[in-house]
Specification:
Layout (H helix, E strand, L loop, with lengths): L10 H4 L4 E2 L4 E9 L2 E9 L2 H10 L8 E11 L13 E2 L3 H10 L5 H7 L5 E8 L6 E8 L9 E7 L4 E9 L1 H12 L10 H41 L10 H39 L15 H99 L20 H45 L1 H14 L1
Parallel strand pairs: 1-5, 4-9
Antiparallel strand pairs: 2-3, 2-4, 6-7, 7-8, 8-9
Helix pairs in contact: 6-7, 6-8, 7-8, 8-9
Length: about 475
């Protein structure tokens, strides 16, 4: 509920959620003197070094300086693994940080901003310190801690002296050197109060740009792998190449969605920055404004320099917004591509299962056909048995010794010498019958086999996933 208060007396409560690990920090003093930017860098580690720097550099009046920035590049404390709450571990002793709060007029809302690690933030407000007349501009910035390399920034701009006291939280060596290089090599007309805020946006742009490029590259490789694996599965029956693990694909897809949301959120903050630059030009830096009359005391050349710097920063923010729009479109395209590739893979797997079921059905049909043939064969055998069995039974019965065949006068009947003719005719007829039956059955089986092969080839050619995919691809190319 500290938003209900307009002062900065919330530090006693906020410091309880901070950790303090004194580390080596860098201090950069940038001053605009005689149309040139002069920068002085110093490395500070102990409380004694801090005290010496306060005594020798802080708020020393210089008649040749028109605007000035006192920037502390707070080192990023090494926590080992990625820690979203790394910024809450400050690289100062608690005693020295309390002194920094007083000397740099750090507003207490920075604690809430730092602990707001789920999303980015850009907060600005006018604040009165010791008197209603003494007003300052307070900026608190925070990049999302969803990915490594997040930063925090607190700026207090004093309009009467055109001095900005700022602390950048979470700077590693590369980031600190990058900030020093950019500020030292700048050729701005004047040090606008939004200079560090726009520089913060530049650093966040670099971080998100690297994340987008790496994530897009990974997801494109996964899409290609999924597509190639699907084509190999459809065209070949052998073992296919391994697709990315499902958990990996889902995780990367979700991370890409979070990254797109992060880009959209920070783009909104940059639009707020652009609006605030116009607000500063119309209110704070307007010599005709009665509420903030300090601009009337400034030199017209200084005011023109501030206006020129503000126009440059606004133009740069427009370019950054355009870059973010492009990255957002790329993320959306990749997200849709992953979904399409996954859906295509599932569809092709379904087609393959359908084709497998068709093959099983064809095999079942073949089994049924063979069963029917066996049944017909049994019927044929039964028919032959019924044809020959009665005659065979009668002949066998009358040939048994229980019957005595005699003539009318008691003579015994003899067998005709032409019995061989009976045997020969019987054998020939039996062979002809069996041969005819065999040829008929064989011819019928051959015809059925040819018809089955033709039906199988036609159905396989029209229903196979490979032909379906080829047809779809050809139709797509034709379109």
């Amino acid at each position: 509920m500290d938003w209900l208060r307009s002062d900065n007396a919330v530090w006693d409560k906020n410091l309880e959620i901070m950790d303090f690990t004194p580390s080596k920090n860098k201090v950069l003093v940038v001053a605009k003197q005689a149309r040139k930017i002069r920068a002085r860098e110093k490395t500070i580690q102990s409380d004694e070094d801090w005290q010496d720097w306060f005594d020798s550099h802080l708020d020393r009046p210089d008649p040749h300086t028109t605007s000035r920035i006192n920037l502390i590049l707070g080192a990023r404390v090494d926590t080992g693994a990625f820690d979203p709450a790394a910024l809450s571990e400050l690289p100062f002793s608690e005693c020295m940080f309390r002194k920094l709060i007083k000397e740099f007029r750090i507003h207490g809302t920075i604690a809430r901003t730092i602990n707001r690690n789920t999303s980015c933030a850009f907060i600005r407000k006018f604040h009165s310190w010791d008197s209603p007349v003494e007003k300052s501009l307070v900026y608190n910035c925070r990049s999302a801690a969803s990915w490594p390399g997040d930063l925090g920034l607190s700026v207090t701009f004093t309009p009467q002296t055109l001095t900005s006291h700022a602390v950048m939280y979470g700077c590693d060596n590369e980031t600190a050197d990058n900030i020093i290089k950019r500020l030292s090599g700048s050729d701005l007309s004047e040090l606008h109060p939004m200079v560090l805020v726009v520089l913060f946006a530049e650093l966040e742009r670099d971080r998100l740009d690297r994340l987008v490029r790496n994530k897009i590259s990974r997801l494109i490789q996964q899409i290609i792998s999924i597509t190639e694996n699907s084509n190999h599965t459809l065209d070949n029956k052998g073992p296919s190449s391994l697709s990315p693990p499902l958990a990996t694909s889902i995780r990367d897809w979700l991370e890409m969605g979070d990254l797109r949301n992060g880009l959209q959120a920070f783009k909104r903050k940059m639009r707020d920055m652009m609006e605030h630059i116009d607000e500063l030009q119309d209110i704070l830096l307007n010599p005709e404004n009665e509420r903030y009359g300090f601009a009337a005391d400034l030199d017209r050349e200084v005011l023109r320099g501030l206006a020129d710097t503000g126009a440059k920063m606004k133009e740069r923010l427009k370019h950054l917004v355009d870059e973010f729009d492009e990255h957002i479109c790329k993320c959306a395209t990749i997200i849709d591509g992953v979904g399409l590739a996954s859906q295509l893979e599932w569809n092709q797997i379904g087609r393959k299962d359908t084709f497998t079921n068709l093959e099983i059905a064809h095999n079942g049909l073949k089994v049924a056909q063979h069963t029917r043939r066996d049944s017909e064969l049994m019927k044929s055998i039964a028919l032959l048995t019924m044809v020959f069995l009665p005659a065979t039974f009668v002949a066998t019965l009358f040939s048994m010794g229980i019957f005595e065949w005699k003539g009318l006068h008691g003579e015994i009947l003899s067998v005709s010498p032409y019995i061989w003719l009976y045997i020969a005719v019987t054998v020939v007829i039996t062979l002809v019958t069996l041969g005819t039956w065999y040829l008929w059955v064989a011819r019928r089986r051959l015809v059925e086999d040819v018809e089955s092969q033709r039906e199988g080839l036609s159905e396989k050619g029209s229903l196979s996933p490979s032909s379906t995919t080829s047809t779809t691809s050809n139709s797509s190319i034709a379109k």
